[in-house]
Amino acid sequence: MPFGCSIRYIPWRILTYRLSGESSRHRVAVWRELRRAGAVALQSATWAVPAGDRFDAALERAIALVERSGGQALCFEVIAPEGSVATLESLYNAEREAEWTEFCAECDKAMAELQAEIAKEKFTLAELDEEEQNIDRLRRWYRDLRAKDLFGASSSAEAERRLKDCAARLEEFAEHVYHARQRQ
Hints:
This protein is an alpha+beta fold. The chain is 66% helix and 12% strand.
């Protein structure tokens, strides 16, 4: 066995690519695609991503972006020593924790916005539409994060609770709007 360690099979893919240095547009497009999929940057132009349909499709899109820009992409499935797999999982979870933290901050902003509108008694249909769109955006984001969170980042439960709190506050706001409309 390599490195004198046991090997535990966890399917990971490593993508490395080379792009021309002329334009950052292609680099940014590949970077965004890989980030959106939940890939972890290991170093410049080298990323790790778990194997699986959702992730494999994103890798194919990233490879296509590299090739369309005239670059070269290499993708490897790796069987790594347990220590390396643990490091990959740790890096992956750290990325998910950062995303959940940002999500919770956005939930806090949405909650504050709803509370402010209730305090101002700004019970209009336009405001309700705006707040519903904001909560719908959070729901979509939550689904995307949940799909990437393979190893159960610890902040995910708190994020779910905050989203539910936002949805409940939105329902409260909708009730206020409804009653305000009835009084007109």
